[in-house]
Amino acid sequence: MASTTTPTLHEDRVALVTEDDLLTPRFVEVLREIFERFDVNQDGFLNRNELKAFAEASTGKDFTEETLEVIAKLFLEKKYLPTPQLSFLGLQGMFLLQVKLNEAEVWADLERLGYDHQLESILVETADLKPLEEVEA
């Protein structure tokens, strides 16, 4: 009798990193979309308020001071300290490390940020939504 294996829950997920430990091109695209969504002032960096909004959207809570210190030491642009300023390159480094430490957590963050297991957006465009009054009329 041939044995069958039950597929794991993760087989349908696309890879986030390559065999060479680089972010995949699609994951970089998604990170760019996320970065631009939270770079409200469009200066090419995430400041403290933008980092806070990113943290709350991706994890449901703000970064702790300890987490901010780690981010500052590893990923922030040093010339912009003491004000936290995370560049897109810093965000990529942050996610690369997180994938290596806890990929399941990265997938949970991506889902909260509106991406499925194929890294496709599952966010509803607000322009497509009609006001409730129009729907009921």
Which helices and strands, and how do they pair?
Elements: H1 25-38, E1 45-46, H2 48-59, H3 65-74, E2 86-87, H4 88-112, H5 132-136
Main beta-sheet strand count, sense and barrel state = 2 strands, antiparallel
Termini separation (Å)?
A: 61 Å
Compute the CA-based radius of gyration.
18 Å
Percent strand equals under 5%
By DSSP, the count of extended strands is 2
What is the mean predicted local confidence, pLDDT? 83
Structural descriptors:
mainly alpha, disordered N terminus, 5 helices, two-stranded antiparallel ribbon, 137 residues, disordered C terminus, 3% strand
Structure report:
The protein is an all-alpha fold and 137 residues long. 48% of the residues lie in helices and 3% in strands. The chain has a two-stranded antiparallel sheet with strand order 1-2. The longest helix has 25 residues, at 88-112. It is globular. The termini are far apart.
Short description:
Helices cover 48% and strands 3% of the residues.
